[in-house]
Specification:
Order of helices and strands of chain A: HHHEEHEHEEEEHEHEHEEEHHE
CATH architecture of the largest domain in chain A: 3-Layer(aba) Sandwich
InterPro entries (chains A, B): LysR-type_TF_proteobact-type, LysR_HTH_N, LysR_subst-bd, WH-like_DNA-bd_sf, WH_DNA-bd_sf
Pfam families (chains A, B): HTH_1 (PF00126), LysR_substrate (PF03466)
Largest sheet of chain A: 6 strands, mixed
CATH class of the largest domain in chain A: Alpha Beta
Number of domains of chain A: 3
Radius of gyration of chain A: 32 Å
Oligomer: homodimer
Protein name (chains A, B): LysR family transcriptional regulator
CATH topology of the largest domain in chain A: D-Maltodextrin-Binding Protein, domain 2
Distance between the termini of chain A: 58 Å
Number of strands of chain A: 13
Organism (chains A, B): Roseicyclus persicicus
GO molecular function (chains A, B): DNA-binding transcription factor activity; sequence-specific DNA binding
Number of helices of chain A: 10
Largest interface: A-B, 50 and 50 residues
Strand content of chain A: 15-25%
Shape of chain A: rod-shaped
Strand order of the largest sheet of chain A: 4-3-5-12-6-13
CATH superfamily of the largest domain in chain A: Periplasmic binding protein-like II
DNA sequence: GCAAGTCTGTGAACAGGTGCACAAAGATGT
DNA sequence: ACATCTTTGTGCACCTGTTCACAGACTTGC
């Protein structure tokens, strides 16, 4: 159906360009006997003469000239392709796919915006989905993951920062129920997670230390949890970096070690070395300082 | 500068198309180990990863997708090229270059016109030049030659027809000088060739049998010779097929064997088998019957 | 959850292609 | 007209790249 040996076309192309087998052989860096054999094989395969042989060299026939023009285009496109691929490693363009926890979006998105301002040719796709996106299938370039250190062999994992949380309630709630320091756990109303076996360490702590009966409100996102706390529904976890509209809230217990969650920056081994991923990862780790969170 | 191994791009193309090394190997008709080595070599040469390897196969990276689109175009163009080259052998299109003696143009051109009417896609270039065009350099597809049988090894030569000539003069001339049958050669006025050593057999005969003093008019073309005869300048050769405006001329001597010139149809070995050349040559030999000339 | 199937990956035997040396033929320059 | 140079063409030794066989890892169906 389609051609079997593209190299032979390349050889024939150089012969047509140079006009001689010897010249083509020198350009191609092979012996002239090889060139002759390539041409013979190609002609045999096509069932048509591509060149007229004479003592001064090879002159292309009609078919040979046709091949010349086609192969010239191909050569052009391949050189351009090679240039693009080689060059692409050094520039930050194209698409960057980042998968992250939705909870971190308020933190992450402004930083990504700043990154895009520095690299105008970059298109970004931020995926915050329940399901785990697999870097090895090329579904994402960079993943921001929480929890235990992933042990995927092809992934290069580096610590991003440590997310510490504050257990808070509204001033209104404290007026009615007091803080945890003053009262019993059983007398309080907690905001928990929908999942029975949550992976977040603070919810693990909650499951372990708070009876289910005291959990009056269960949510799926940190955003909902924060809103619930602000509404005075109960005691809930709020990220330490989330200072927006938390002035009216009070900490009902000093932070515990058990609540802190390590956040990891994960890239695929193959993509980690590329400039696009590298600069993005470095930029993100720089931003951490401005976020006012604990470094990992 | 440009790519060294086009076959590797072809391999990578199939891998990108199929998604797996094994699938590509089957399509390419090689072992899958070969495919892996090609990809590895190509990636090493480009300095960039083209695919992400995982247990379900190879998924192309950004660079791999770029290669996919480029190589798809290439594959298309190569298949089209092969189709054109293979098909070209069966059809009579493109350009047909014929080199001939200018003297035969009045005979040849109408026939070529008829041939072109049968093959509308054919463009023809008729070269009637002093210098000999060399078929082995692809300068012409078909050559019409006179004289001795050429012995070029790569040329396939076949007899076309035998050009016989008539030695004629105007009625007016005969009234003044008589014919050759009635008078001496020395008393006549001949029309000869400019060249000292003419290749045409009838001029060779003229040189041998007519003293230079009797040659009063020398020309470079048969057309000029005919005009000279018609003007009553002297005795000259006119092709036997040339009946146009020769009614007022009289033959001053019956045709001799020495005057006849064999006309050859010459093609290059490589091109002789092609349908374009074949049909043209056959058509020409058919036309000979209508020309009213002696078959060779 | 286990087994079958599919995929990638790698070291060793093998073979097809490559390079080499030499020959022949035509072109070129003196 | 001769010698020199360039070019194509070919048989043989060698080496690169291919095939083969096997292993390992993951996916998938039962």
């Amino acid at each position: 159906m389609s051609f079997d040996h593209w190299d032979e076309i390349r050889t024939a192309y150089q012969v047509a360009r140079m006009g001689t087998v010897s010249g083509a052989a020198e350009v191609l860096g092979v012996h002239h006997a090889t060139v002759i054999r390539h041409i013979d094989a190609l002609e045999g395969r096509l069932g048509a003469k591509l060149f007229q042989r004479h003592a001064r060299g090879y002159t292309p026939t009609e078919a040979g000239q046709d091949l010349l023009t086609v192969a010239a285009q191909t050569d052009d496109q391949f050189t351009q392709l090679a240039g693009r691929i080689k060059g692409r490693g050094d520039e930050v363009t194209g698409e960057l796919i980042v998968t992250s926890l939705d909870a971190l979006s308020p933190l992450l998105v402004p930083s990504i915006g700043e990154f895009m301002r520095r690299h105008p040719d970059l298109r970004v796709r931020l995926i915050t989905d329940q399901r785990l996106f697999r870097l090895e299938y090329g579904e994402a370039h960079v993943a921001i993951r929480a929890g235990k250190l992933p042990d995927q062999p092809d992934n290069v994992v580096q610590p991003f920062f440590t997310q510490t949380l504050r257990l808070m309630a509204s001033r209104d709630y404290v007026d009615r129920f007091g803080t945890l320091e003053t009262g019993n756990v059983e007398d309080h109303r907690f905001i928990g997670a929908n999942e029975d076996t949550p992976r977040a360490p603070y919810f693990v702590w909650l499951n372990a230390n708070v009876p289910p009966a005291s959990v009056y409100f269960r949510v799926s996102s940190m955003k909902a949890a924060k809103a619930a706390v602000q509404a005075g529904i109960g005691i809930g976890f709020i990220s330490d970096w989330d200072r927006d509209g938390t002035d009216d809230l009070v900490e009902v217990l000093p932070p515990l070690e058990d609540w802190s969650a390590k956040i990891w920056l994960v890239t695929h081994m193959d993509l980690h070395r590329t400039a696009k991923v590298q600069t993005f990862v470095r930029f993100l780790k720089d931003q951490v300082k401005d976020w006012g969170v604990a470094l990992a």
